[in-house]
Every structure is written in structure tokens, then in C-alpha cells.
Design brief:
By secondary structure, the protein is mainly α. Helices cover 64% and strands 1% of the residues. The chain folds into three domains: 16-178; 257-512, no CATH class; 523-634, no CATH class. The protein has 35 helices and two strands. The protein starts with 7 loop residues before the first helix and ends in an 8-residue tail after the last helix.
């Protein structure tokens, strides 16, 4: 029957039909009626009175979850449940009656034997049950009162909670489980109640154990890791801290497990995304807290700041229990008390990266293993957290042509909620980030070093020799563009610290083998851009980047300089007139012209005193400088 709400006779006829079906207790025909959803939205009293009886609701749920259910009939029943989301007197009967609420879970239990443990693809004959479970449970949890009833139900029947988590390999079941734990529209007191539930039943420990279980499929582990990312981004009180506490366990699993098969090696990427999400959150939030309390930081004595630097160096380099002397600024002290030991543990674990890279490469002699690629990508993205910090402190922009001075501190993670520590798109960029924010903000605020700064991981990478491995990848696989991109990202992100952290920058150039690589390439004849292989292209990018770093030219300045050559682009950049392009030296021969602009004399001196770099500049950089620039070229 087609609804015609404008016609009173149509409404009366429809009401008579529904009333007749209710009097005959013909639920199957009732839910198949075209007008039932409309009548529920209109809150038809007779219909609500019929549906709110436990007997009727039991029949309704049975139509959905019985083993031999009719698909069309089950879909009609689900539509009725969804139409009752805002009718508390109907669905509340289900959540308040354990016998009714058990029906969906019992259905999962009957079919759980069909799904091998850790398997990800649900058998086709089971998919309608998992889909129905997810849709019905989300409708039941739509109301705060019903959500609290479900939490109480699961507290007393934890076997159902374990079953729900086991079957979360299905996207519908996982979606409902995520909704159980987090919804952005919930009030603070409800979020706290959910957090207490999660802590009481130990969900995080169970999820973490499954993620590091090698018998669990990578897809299922990825779904669980994504669930923890939802919790971290949603900042569920007390629960997000539990997730962060598991990070050393996750990283230790990645760096100590022997992933022999390429399929198993993909778990490095899955768990790495979770680690990056958590690390990015903490680094960004700490930088925001520091920048809110700049006045208090400026009032600290030199002795206090000096002691803080010594303690940080000792904690990250040593093996003792990490402990910092409080600065006397409560928000900073409380935050670092919670997260500082975790970050120190992660930085210490990074010392194992070279050994794991060697194991992952294993028997692959002429090609790069997938595990090596994803682990190098993880290291490069850790360094790219510096861009997240800069972006979080950047002035708000209404467009690319306007700049405002309001600093983002209220929600510092809003700029990148789903892709933390993304690698930059530009080939000649280090970690990247907002050019308006000095790279100093990544390391310190008001002269006080950040306890959770990314620079500590940069030092850990240099200490374990990752910069040397990056150069070896350039040498060993001359045509592996993907590996070269990641290796150059690592090298350039380390060099980017420049005068902010000279030890990281200078060690990357002096001890990595980069100068030897420059000399090797220089001995060959000059190759025009079109004839260069991936190895030469990326080495040139790194060499140019090192020279630009000595003069403090931001990466984005290169792009802006090119854009100014196009009449169609009119971009306003603070402190730079439209007619004044961003100038920077492209070779050592032109570096003397910009001598007064040098911000890192030690680096420039190192490059000038290096026979390898001088030769490379003469063979490649100077010739390229005379070649007509093409917009797409670096």
C-alpha cells in the first residue's frame, strides 16, 4: 500500500489495516506493511502498545536471529527496530529484560563455531547474523539509558562481552563494538561511565593480547588496532591511558617477532599505525600544553632548565627507571608523569630496529622484502610527527591566501584525526609541517626542552645507526624507488633538525656514509635529469636539502618560490613581498652570495670542507643550477 498522508481516508484505511493485524497478532505481516515505519515515527499508540510487550519483542528478535530466518522478513524486522530508536518504551523493554537482550548474543554464540579463531572473512551463511547483530545493537545503544542497561548486562555476563569481541572480525559487529566504547555526542558523565566499564572488565588487555597474537589474522588484528585508535582519538577518560601503556608491548612485538612470510610482515604496518596514532597524540598535546604555559616557562631559572636537559639526556640514553624532576607547572608535570616513561621505553626499543631489518631482509638478496619497506616507513613516519606538532600550533587559515594569528590549542589534534604522521607529498621536504611555525617548536618551548619531543627518537635512530642503513639502501638497490623515497625521508628529517639539534644533523651527514655515496656518484659522468635513476635523484634531493638547511630555508619556501613565477598565483606570505621570491643557494658556488643568511655555520663549514660534497656540488648541483627550471622539478 502506498502512503498518502495528505488523504485522511488513506490514513484511516491504513490504520484499520494495522489495527486488524495487531488484533490478529500477525507480526510477520505487520512488519512487512509499507506504512509501519511512518506510523512509528508518528508514535501510533496502538502500535507502540503492541510492540512494547515482551512477547512481541521476543517474536521480533526471533524473526531476525533465528537460524533459518527469511532475509526479507529479517530486514523488515530490523527496520522496525531502527524506527523505534527514539521510542524509549519499546526498546527499553529489550535492554531491561535479560532474556530478550540475550537473543542476539545467543545467536552469535551458535554461529561462533563456524568462524575459526582469528579468521577475518565471515562465512556467507553467517553474514546476515553478524550484520543484524551490529544494526540491532547500535539501535539499542542509541539511548543513554539503554546504553547503561547494556553495560550493566555485560558486567554480569562477561562471556557475552568476550563473544562480542571475538566476532568483531566482522565489520558490522566491530562497528557496534566501537559505538559501545565511543561516541562523540555523549555527555562527559556517560563517557566516564563507559570508561569505568572498560577498566572493570579489562577490555584493553584482551584486545592488546589479541593484537600481538601471531595466530590471529592480520586483518582481525588491524580491526582491533583501529578500535584502539578510536579510543585514543576520542580520548576516552582513563581508557586512552591504558592504550598508551600498551605501546612498549606493541613495539617490542614488532621488533622481536620473526616475521618470515610477507603476509605476516604486513602486521608491522597495522600495529605501526596504532603506535603512530598514540605517539602523535601525546607529542601534539604536550606541545599544546607547553605553549599554553609560556609565561610560566619563561620564569624558570637557567639552573632548572639546565637540569631538565641533563635529565632528559640521561633518561633517554640510559637504562635506569626514567624520572624527571617536576618543573612546578602542574599541567606539564602531570602529563609528563603519565606519558614520559612510555616514550622513553619506546625510544630505547628503537635500538632494535637495525637487527629486525636484517631479519626481515633475510633471504632476499636482490630485492627488498615487504617487511623492510613497512618498517622503514614506520621509522620515517615517527620522524614526521614533527610536522604534526608544527601543524597543531599553526595559525588558522581560511584559505591558502590568508593568515590569521589565532593559535590552535583547544583541540590540537583536530587537524589530522585519521592520518597521523603522514609522509609529505613533496619529494624535497623533510618532516614538513606548517612553515609559519619554527622547527624550534618541535624541540622546545620558551627554551625548555619538551619531555616527549620527537628529537629524542631522532637521536635514538642516529644512535642505532638507522641513518647508515638508509644510505645503504640507496647503494644496494639503485632502482628501488619506494625504498629510496623512505630512505631520503629519514635522512632529510634528521638533517632538518639543523641548528636546533646540531648533534643529530651533523652526525647524519658525517657518519651515515652519505658523503661516500656523493663521491661515488660524482666519479661517474654527469647525467641529465631525464637519464637519472632513482638512486641519483634522491641523493641529489638530500644534498640540496642539506645545503638549504644551513641557510634556514623552509621546505615549503621552495614551492612558494616556484608558485611566484606563475602569474595566476597570488599568495600572501608573512614577511615576504610578492615581488621577492624565496632565495636559497642551490650549490656551494652560489652559497657565498647568501653568506649573511647562514643560520647554521657548522653545517656549511662541514659541507665546504668535505671533498666529496665539493665534488658533488661541482659535478651535479652547479650544472643543474644553470639548467632552465621546470615547475615539476625540485
Amino acid at each position: 500500500m502506498v502512503l498518502c498522508p495528505q488523504d485522511p481516508t488513506c490514513e484511516e484505511s491504513e490504520g484499520d489495516e494495522l489495527g486488524e493485524l495487531i488484533r490478529n497478532d500477525n507480526l510477520a505481516a505487520l512488519i512487512a506493511h509499507d506504512g509501519i515505519a511512518f506510523q512509528l515515527r508518528c508514535r501510533e499508540e496502538l502500535l507502540i502498545e503492541y510492540l512494547q510487550t515482551p512477547t512481541t519483542l521476543a517474536q521480533l528478535l526471533t524473526l531476525i536471529f533465528r537460524d533459518d530466518c527469511d532475509q526479507e522478513e529479517a530486514n523488515c524486522a530490523i527496520t522496525v527496530v531502527q524506527a523505534c530508536e527514539n521510542i524509549s518504551q519499546v526498546l527499553s523493554v529489550i535492554t531491561d529484560t535479560p532474556g530478550l537482550l540475550s537473543i542476539p548474543f545467543d545467536s552469535l554464540r551458535r554461529h561462533s563455531t563456524l568462524l575459526p579463531r582469528g579468521h577475518y572473512e565471515v562465512p556467507r551463511r553467517f553474514q546476515h547474523i553478524s550484520r543484524s547483530f551490529g544494526q540491532v545493537l547500535k539501535s539499542l545503544m542509541w539511548s543513554t539509558k539503554r546504553l547503561l542497561s547494556i553495560l550493566s548486562f555485560l558486567r554480569e555476563r562477561r562471556e557475552y562481552l568476550a563473544l562480542w569481541l571475538q566476532m568483531a572480525c566482522d565489520s558490522y559487529v566491530m562497528d557496534a563494538f566501537s559505538f559501545l566504547l565511543y561516541d562523540s555526542s555523549r555527555k562527559a558523565e556517560i563517557a566516564e561511565e563507559v570508561a569505568r566499564f572498560v577498566c572493570d572488565v579489562g577490555i584493553i588487555d584482551v584486545v592488546a593480547a589479541n593484537i600481538v597474537d601471531v595466530t590471529i589474522s592480520t586483518e582481525y588484528a588491524g580491526a582491533l588496532a583501529q578500535l584502539l585508535c578510536v579510543i585514543v582519538i576520542g580520548r576516552l577518560p582513563a581508557v586512552a591511558e591504558q592504550v598508551h601503556a600498551q605501546l612498549p608491548r606493541f613495539l617490542s612485538f614488532l621488533l622481536e617477532t620473526k616475521f618470515t612470510e610477507p603476509e605476516a610482515q604486513s602486521r608491522i604496518e597495522v600495529i605501526g599505525d596504532l603506535i603512530l596514532c598514540c605517539m602523535s597524540m601525546t607529542c601534539v598535546q604536550e606541545a599544546g600544553i607547553y605553549n599554553v604555559h609560556l609565561e610560566e616557562l619563561n620564569s624558570l631559572s637557567e639552573a632548572v632548565v639546565g637540569r631538565r636537559r641533563e635529565e632528559l639526556e640521561r633518561c633517554y640514553a640510559g637504562s635506569d627507571q626514567p624520572q624527571l624532576t617536576p618543573l612546578g607547572i602542574a599541567p606539564i608535570d602531570d602529563y609528563e608523569k603519565m606519558y614520559f616513561p612510555i616514550h622513553v621505553a619506546l625510544a630505547r626499543l628503537c635500538q632494535r630496529i637495525p637487527h629486525q631489518l636484517e631479519i626481515l631482509q633475510g633471504r632476499f638478496a636482490r630485492s627488498v622484502s615487504f617487511g623492510v619497506v613497512v618498517l622503514l616507513r614506520l621509522a620515517a613516519r615517527v620522524l614526521s610527527i614533527a610536522a604534526d606538532v608544527r601543524n597543531s600550533l599553526a595559525p588558522r587559515r581560511d584559505s591558502f591566501r590568508e593568515t590569521f594569528n589565532s593559535i590552535i590549542l583547544t583541540d590540537p589534534y583536530s587537524y589530522s584525526p585519521t592520518t597521523p604522521a603522514a609522509l609529505p607529498d613533496s619529494g624535497d621536504t623533510g618532516a614538513g609541517g606548517a612553515p609559519d611555525i619554527s622547527f624550534v617548536a618541535v624541540v622546545q618551548a620558551a627554551g625548555v626542552p619538551l619531555g616527549l619531543g620527537v628529537v629524542h627518537f631522532a637521536r635514538a635512530f642516529v644512535s642505532c645507526g638507522l641513518h647508515r642503513i638508509a644510505v645503504q639502501m640507496l647503494e644496494k638497490f639503485p632502482n628501488a624507488t619506494c625504498v629510496h623515497y623512505l630512505a631520503s625521508r629519514i635522512l632529510m628529517s634528521l638533517i632538518e633538525y639543523g641548528p636546533v639539534s646540531p648533534d643529530v644533523c651533523l652526525a647524519t651527514i658525517e657518519t651515515s656514509g652519505l658523503l661516500r655515496e656523493l663521491e661515488t656518484i660524482s666519479f661517474a659522468a654527469y647525467q641529465p635529469p631525464r637519464d637519472r635513476n632513482s638512486r641519483v635523484v634522491h641523493v641529489i634531493l638530500v644534498a640540496r636539502f642539506a645545503l638549504r638547511t644551513a641557510f634556514g630555508v623552509p621546505d615549503e619556501g621552495v614551492l612558494l618560490s616556484k608558485l611566484r613565477k606563475l602569474d595566476s598565483h597570488r599568495i600572501i606570505v608573512p614577511g615576504c613581498r610578492l615581488t621577492e621570491p624565496v632565495a636559497y643557494p642551490m650549490s656551494l658556488s652560489t652559497a657565498t652570495t647568501f653568506e649573511e643568511r647562514c643560520v647554521f655555520p657548522e653545517l656549511l663549514r662541514l659541507l665546504r670542507q668535505s671533498h666529496a660534497y665539493v665534488m658533488f656540488s661541482r659535478v651535479y648541483l652547479e650544472i643543474d643550477e644553470r639548467v632552465d627550471a621546470v615547475f615539476s622539478e625540485p
